[in-house]
Design a protein that fits this description.
The complex is a heterodimer of chains A (about 325) and B (about 325).
Chain A lengths: L1 H20 L3 E7 L5 H16 L2 E7 L4 H13 L4 E5 L7 H9 L4 E4 L6 H4 L3 E4 L2 H15 L4 E6 L5 H17 L4 E7 L4 H15 L5 E4 L2 H13 L9 E6 L4 H6 L5 E4 L2 H17 L7 E4 L4 E3 L3 H6 L5
Parallel strand pairs in A: 1-2, 1-3, 3-4, 4-5, 5-11, 6-7, 6-8, 8-9, 9-10
Antiparallel strand pairs in A: 10-12
Chain B lengths: L1 H12 L1 H16 L6 H26 L7 H15 L5 H24 L5 H20 L4 E2 L3 H8 L1 E3 L2 E2 H19 L1 H11 L1 H7 L3 H27 L1 E2 L7 H11 L11 H20 L5 H41 L5
Antiparallel strand pairs in B: 1-4, 2-3
Helix pairs in contact in B: 2-13, 3-8, 3-9, 3-11, 3-12, 3-13, 4-5, 4-6, 4-11, 5-6, 5-11, 7-8, 7-11, 8-9, 9-10, 9-11, 12-13, 12-14, 13-14
Classes of the chains: A alpha/beta (about 325), B mainly alpha (about 325).
Chain lengths: ~325, ~325
Amino acid sequence: MRKIAWIVAILVLIPFAMGFAAPKAKVGVVYVTFSSPYASAMVKGYKKYAAEMNVDMTILDSQLDIQKEAANMDSIIAMRPDVIVIAPVDAEGSKAAIKKAIAKGIPVICSNVTINDAAKLGVLAFTGPNCYSEAQVVAREAIKRNPTGRVVMITGTPGYSAAEDRKNGFLDTIQKQAPNMKVLDIQSGNWMRDTTQRVMSDFITKYGDQIDIVYTHDDNMTVGAINALKDAGYTAEKRPIVLSIGAMADGLPAVKDGWIDATCQQSPWEDARLSLQVALDIKSGKFKGPYKEFWIDTPPVDKSNVQQVIDMHIWD
Amino acid sequence: MKRTRALRTLLSQYKLLAITAVLLVFMAFVRGEFFGVENLINIITNMSINGILSIGMTLLMIAGCFDISLGSILVLSGAVSIIALRIASVPVALLLGISSGVLMGILNGVLVAKFKINSFIATLGTMVIFQGATFSVTNNKPVATDSDAFQAFAMHNVAFGIPRLVFYFVIAILIIWVIARFTRLGKFAYAIGGNIEACRRVGIKVDLYLIGFFAISGLFGSFGGVALASKIQAASAIFGDNIGLLVIAAIVIGGVSLSGGVGKVGGVVQGIILIAIMDTMTNFLGLVGYYQLLFRSLLLLGVILYDVLSVRQAEQRLERLAVETLRRLERKEVG
């Protein structure tokens, strides 16, 4: 009798065990490049969350090469995943490979970067940061600290959607909520630290103590601006308000040391996690379309919560 | 005895294919889905464009010259054909794109042959010029087309899901193989690569032939560029960034000596196939992207070392033979 009970128990448990072991979804991720700090942190995030969320994930590096991306997409499609997540190399050139996947019945999510006319092509979702609302977060931080301050802005490369959105989000918000705030000047730093340092230096020469608030589009550039401020004799205690976007490797220590008042966090781990979550929702049928944009949370990081973010070790 | 000798010769001639076969057997055990028909067709299709470029540059490298601007020829010709689609028909756009490569090749040839600029440096310069021209005509943004007829040029399904592009690759191989093996043009490529001064002294119009080889390289480069534009229905100045050195690597791995004068088309084809298999293998094994570069570089290094060592071995053998002959002459055994 006992023997039979054991056998029955085991037979009943086996399907449960298989249910636990079987992954919830098979996801293929094709990422434009693994080489930038943001990208390599995001890849780390993908691996972390794929394990946590029980997703069978394959992630491939397109190495900024359109032909490599086409080959990667072919390999992934051959593995017949449930969902494909792609950060495309080119807004036009990547369409052919995405079209191929959709034609084979595999739903496609664009992550962090998108193609033109994504909805029209049949892409099911976009997950990633909303640069316009990141700028709105920064604007609110500025208004909180000095609603009548005078602002200089150092932007990313003109024409880049991230730069345009991070500029307009800020300007539109202060126009409505802080009409007494004045913008002294806006110049491009081209996403580069040394260019930004030069621009900030010029601003200090031109406007001197008139500058109340410094806003740059990216932590990397902000470090350049801070260097210019240091050279001009400003200290962490006596300086204009400094606001930034990213909460990245060089931004976090600057917040801790008291040089950046607030930076809007764009977490590559959140970016990765959200795309996997939407992939799971597509597989389970929770999300069936039509095309929708899923934004990651981009909260501000200041002295009060910077240590928590540092402790997550996203960037090392 | 004879049979092992024949086997050894066969292996040395087809050593790259032998390595490829070993890799394929490995993949059969580890990841069976690698052998899906769909995947194999994809591998062949994806190797075709760089394959056409590599084959096109083989004669030039046998003649001892480099063309690093090939990646930029690819993007400029692709951009030309897509932009031409706005005002012309598909055949005209194709023609304009493909012929633009001949012009670019001739420019390269003139710089090297007439102005006597080192080919590496000259084509490094034209690489920047052609890419700059591409940024300029595309206004720094990718250009695209909806034309299905244009896509059909490369991707029309000929049979069993194999697109035209693969057949273009095969035809390219045949053309260059015939030229290299059976025509004067091919023989002169080997001659010029072997000893360019001797060729000049003998009266061979070296300059003309060099320009010809550059023009052929440019032609195949632009054919590949138009084919890529057709495949993805887009063109952008950055699509050719990695291609120049990649193409040279395939040719050198295929047995064409860096100093010229040596090499076979068959070897280059084997090199192209091996690289394509290695790249797809790393994808299927889930290895991170830089392993592709690592394996390819190790292979390249291995081939170059083998090349250098076997030349050294041959020289040593010749030296020993010369010493032995002299000794026998002294002892009056010979002569």
